[in-house]
Design brief:
This protein is an alpha+beta fold. The chain has 8 helices and 8 strands; from the N terminus they run H-H-E-E-H-E-E-E-H-E-H-E-E-H-H-H. Helix 1 packs across helix 2. The radius of gyration is 23 Å and the shape is elongated.
Length: 280
C-alpha cells in the first residue's frame, strides 16, 4: 500500500489553477506548505490497543486505617458495585493519574495514596508503572509485569533492568511529558492544535493551544462527568472532537486538514486586524 496519500505538487497545481487570476504559483505553494508535510497520519498502530491488567495501590487514611487495594482486570467489561463515597471514582482517577500524569484525585484523599503499581498492555507488550506519590510523584515505567516487579524489588535488583526501563520521572509534570511521548509513539498520535478567540469584544486576536495525550485520554476513556458524549461536543475544545476521532482511527489527511484550518484562522485574524486598522 502506498503511504503517500497526497502529492503536494499536484495539490498546489490544482489550487493554483482554481485561483491563478488572484495569486501566483509561488504564493499558493508557500500558503499550503506544512512543516510536517501532508502524509503524517499513520496506520502503524492498527490493531494495537491499551488495556489495563492489574492495579495495586496502598497508603493510610488520616485515622491510621491502612489502604491496600489489589485488583486484576478481566478482558471485556469490569464493574465495581459499591455505595457512594466508597472509592469507585478514586480508582479511575488513580488509573488516569498513572497513564497521563494528571492528578485529579480529591485533595483530601491524595495524601492517603502513597504507592501505585499499574500493569497494562499496549498491543502484546506488557508494562508496569510504579509511582511513589508521597510528596512529588516519582517512579518508573518498566516493560514487565507487576509480579516480576515485586520479585525484583524483593531481590533489590530493580536498578539492573535498564534494558527493560522505558523512562523514569521525578514529578507529575515529568510523568505527563513522558507518558505523552510514550503513547504518541505507540499509537502514532501527535498534538493537534486549535484556535480560540480573545474574549474581548471586537478583538480579532487568536490564541493557539495544543491538544495533549491527557485530552485524548479523557475523550477516549470516558469519565463519569462526561458520559453524555462519545467525544467532545462542538462547543468544547474548538470543535476538535471529530479531529481526535479521525486521528485515533488513523484516517489519512487528518493532520493537514487540522494544520490548514489553523492557517485559515490565522489569515482571517490578519484580515480582521487589517480592516480594523484601515477603519481607524
Amino acid at each position: 500500500m502506498n503511504e503517500d496519500f497526497i502529492n503536494f505538487k499536484k495539490f498546489v497545481d490544482h489550487v493554483y489553477h482554481e485561483f491563478e487570476q488572484k495569486v501566483s504559483l509561488e504564493e499558493v505553494s508557500e500558503l499550503l506548505s506544512l512543516e510536517d508535510g501532508y502524509n503524517r497520519d499513520s496506520h502503524h498502530s492498527t490493531g494495537r490497543n491499551l488495556s489495563i491488567a492489574r492495579l495495586i495501590f496502598s497508603g493510610e487514611k488520616r485515622n491510621s486505617e491502612p489502604i491496600s487495594f489489589d485488583q486484576s482486570f478481566h478482558k471485556g467489561i469490569n464493574v465495581w458495585i459499591a455505595d457512594n463515597h466508597k472509592g469507585k471514582s478514586t480508582i479511575f482517577k488513580i488509573i488516569k493519574f498513572v497513564l497521563t500524569g494528571r492528578n485529579k484525585i480529591k485533595r483530601d484523599i491524595q495524601p492517603w495514596i502513597e504507592e501505585i503499581l499499574l500493569e497494562f498492555n499496549v498491543g502484546k507488550v506488557l508494562y508496569t508503572c510504579h509511582v511513589d506519590s508521597r510528596g512529588r510523584a516519582r517512579g518508573t515505567l518498566f516493560r514487565f509485569s507487576i509480579e516480576e516487579y515485586q520479585h525484583l524489588a524483593e531481590l533489590g535488583k530493580l536498578d539492573t533492568v535498564d534494558s527493560r526501563t522505558e523512562f523514569t520521572f521525578r514529578s507529575a509534570a515529568e510523568l505527563e511529558r513522558n507518558m505523552q511521548e510514550f503513547f504518541f509513539d505507540q499509537f502514532s498520535f501527535y498534538s493537534m492544535k486549535y484556535t480560540q478567540k480573545d474574549s474581548a469584544k471586537d478583538s480579532f486576536a487568536l490564541r493557539t493551544s495544543n491538544l495533549s495525550w491527557a485530552t485524548y485520554y479523557k475523550s477516549i476513556y470516558l469519565e463519569s462527568s462526561n458520559y453524555e458524549y462519545l467525544f467532545f461536543d462542538e462547543e468544547r475544545k474548538g470543535a476538535q472532537g471529530r479531529k481526535i476521532f479521525e486521528m485515533i482511527l488513523g484516517l489519512p489527511l487528518t493532520y493537514p486538514i487540522n494544520a490548514l484550518s489553523l492557517q485559515r484562522d490565522r489569515i482571517k485574524e490578519s484580515i480582521g486586524k487589517a480592516k480594523m486598522t484601515f477603519k481607524t
